TrEMBL record:
InterPro entries: Cro/C1-type_HTH, Lambda_DNA-bd_dom_sf. It comes from Nonomuraea terrae. PROSITE patterns: HTH_CROC1 (PS50943). Residues 12-66 form the HTH cro/C1-type domain. This is XRE family transcriptional regulator. GO terms for molecular function: DNA binding. Signal peptide: none annotated. Pfam families: HTH_31.
Length: 117
C-alpha cells in the first residue's frame, strides 16, 4: 500500500538535501522540533497543513509545488502497483462506454475552459 506520508517525506527530504541544508537549519526556520521534522521526512508522522506550510516556507518552496511532486510520485506508484489489463477479469475492466464522456457545461465551467485552452 502506498502511504501518502512516506511520499511527502521523500519529497521534503529531497528538496532539503538538494538545497544542501541540514535538518537542524530547516527545523529552526520552520519552528518545529528536529526530531519531529525527521519523523515527517521518514514518513513516520503525518504533518498538518500548518506544519507543511511552515516547512515549505523554511525551504523557500510553495506548498503547491511540494503537493504537485507528491501527487506525481503517487500517480507513478499507483501505476507501478496496478495490474496489467490482461490480468484484470473482463467484468472488472473499464470499457469505453463506461468511461464518462466530455465534461458537461454545467459542471465546473472554469475547469472546462482551462482544459480547452
Amino acid at each position: 500500500m502506498i502511504l501518502l506520508r512516506q511520499l511527502l517525506g521523500d519529497v521534503l527530504r529531497r528538496l532539503r538535501v538538494r538545497q544542501g541544508r541540514t535538518l537542524r537549519e530547516v527545523s529552526t526556520l520552520a519552528r518545529v522540533s528536529l526530531g519531529y521534522l525527521s519523523e515527517v521526512e521518514r514518513g513516520q508522522k503525518e504533518a498538518s497543513s500548518e506544519l507543511l506550510a511552515s516547512i515549505c516556507g523554511a525551504l523557500g518552496v510553495p506548498l503547491s509545488q511540494v503537493l504537485r511532486e507528491v501527487s506525481d510520485q503517487f500517480a507513478l506508484a499507483e501505476l507501478q502497483a496496478a495490474p496489467v489489463l490482461a490480468e484484470v477479469p473482463e467484468h472488472e475492466r473499464l470499457l469505453p462506454e463506461t468511461v464518462p464522456g466530455p465534461m458537461s457545461d454545467s459542471v465546473f465551467p472554469e475547469v472546462k475552459d482551462m482544459v480547452a485552452a
